[in-house]
Amino acid sequence: MSLDDIKLSPFLVKKLYEKTLVVSSFAKEEKTEITKNVVSKNNISTEIDAVNAIKYLGKNNRHILIIVNEKEHKFLGDDELSFLMNILSACNITMADTALVNAYTDENVMYENLIKIFEPTTILFIGTEPQALGFPVQIPMYQVQSYNKQQYLCAPSLQKLSADKEEKKQLWVALKKIFSI
Q1: Domain 54-179 is of which CATH architecture?
Q2: pTM higher than the cut 0.90
Q3: Which of these, 64, 80, 81, 87, could form a disulfide with 10 (CB 3.0-4.6 Å)?
Q4: CA distance 134 to 132
Q5: 3-class SS of residue 98
Q6: pLDDT tens-digit profile of 110-137?
């Protein structure tokens, strides 16, 4: 077995990457202090408000924003996270490439904040509606839409996707368009 074939459970991934995948409010405050120092040195009067920081899972390396609406977990349950990781893996994407945000648990998850903080090029709405978060677009399910140099896609919840083969097929067709697979 090669290192490329090792499968890690979502629980193990969380434990292994606690310090790097989950951005805590403490880490955000440290980053903000550094940013404030750099900003003041460049004579720019912009400040980042650490109190309004949005908690997310991932590193946002490729500026892919995934927005879910999970009532029972901070981000996703183990089964849903594993399913999402499998979807991303099929698209040659890792969690480090994305920022996973739970709109249900964070009142700061609104259009203006998300665009400023994450600077996304791709936004996936999973189990949530763009209009509910102040996005100026209406997107039919599984139809890739472009707006403001960003690509948007809406899909049902991960629970529904994992249970319905037809839904998975429709999602896969849309993801192939977005990620040129």
Answers
A1: 3-Layer(aba) Sandwich (3.40)
A2: no
A3: 81
A4: 6
A5: strand
A6: 898 899 999 999 999 999 999 989 888 8
